[in-house]
Design brief:
- This protein is of the alpha+beta class.
- It has two domains: 92 residues, Immunoglobulin-like (Sandwich), CATH 2.60.40; 105 residues, no CATH class.
- The protein has eight helices and ten strands.
- Strands 1, 2, 5 and 8 form a four-stranded mixed β-sheet that branches.
- The protein starts with a helix and ends in a 5-residue tail after the last helix.
């Protein structure tokens, strides 16, 4: 009886060994060997990583599910069959597509722009660069120099304020009212990473900057957005 049990146990042991394999392969990302890719045998809960040549070796069997995961790449799942063990297999990862975040601003068209300060700055520069310039006509601008037209406009605005009749009050909108009209609470929470109870203190913080008094009157929504993103860096939660 004992002899039969020992033979049966040995039979199961050899059967288990027969079903086990070492899966060998190379992981490529964008056509190049990819190091430090996590190779996970989900079925057996085993985790390995690729070496600096993109190679890996992991215990597996036919029917196991293998997951490949790396930063900036789409995850890849493979269900193993016998052909995967016949030779060293190459697994190709696809790089994630970079999507522009969509920001909806009340009362305006939907704008698809990056929400970082750098992306907004590049957007503003691109708009200014694409403005048509008349060749041979002096506009008052000097490339990378002093803009005399802008200086003249500022002097005219200053004189208008000084010469305006007393008692005449211009209908101006405060920064807070403008921002509350153009941006929803969801924008402040999702795009500026503010808590709901921090929104009003943040708007007041921006309003205390003298620049906020002019930016809502003279500039567009993108410039206000850039201004708030810049102030968010200095605002303490």
């Amino acid at each position: 009886m004992n002899r039969f049990v020992i033979i049966f146990i040995l039979f199961l042991f050899h059967l288990n060994l027969f079903g086990q394999h070492d899966l060998k392969g190379i992981v490529l990302g964008n056509g190049y060997a990819k190091a430090n890719v996590e190779v996970v045998n989900i079925t057996k809960k085993i985790v390995k990583k690729t070496d600096d040549k993109g190679k890996f070796l992991i215990s597996a069997a036919v029917g196991d599910v293998i997951l490949f995961a790396a930063k900036d790449y789409n995850e890849k799942k493979v269900k193993l069959n016998q052909e995967h063990f016949n030779s060293e297999i190459v697994f190709q990862l696809e790089i994630k597509a970079v999507e522009l975040k969509e920001i909806e601003i009340a009362g305006t068209e939907k704008l698809k722009v990056g929400t970082s300060y750098e992306a907004l700055k590049m957007e503003k520069l691109a708009r200014e660069e694409n403005q048509p310039k008349v060749v041979g006509v002096f506009t008052g601008e000097i490339d990378k120099g002093i803009d005399f037209v802008e200086i003249g406009n500022k002097i005219i605005k200053l004189l208008d304020k000084q010469l305006a009749p007393k008692g005449e009050v211009k209908n101006t909108e405060s920064f807070k009212k403008y921002v509350r009209r153009e941006f929803s609470n969801e924008f402040f929470i999702t795009k500026l990473n503010l808590k709901e109870n921090e929104i009003d203190p943040f708007i007041v913080f921006c309003e205390n900057d003298l620049k906020s008094r002019d930016i809502t009157q003279q500039n567009g929504v993108l410039d206000v957005l850039e201004f708030m993103l810049d102030k968010r860096k200095d605002f303490k939660n």
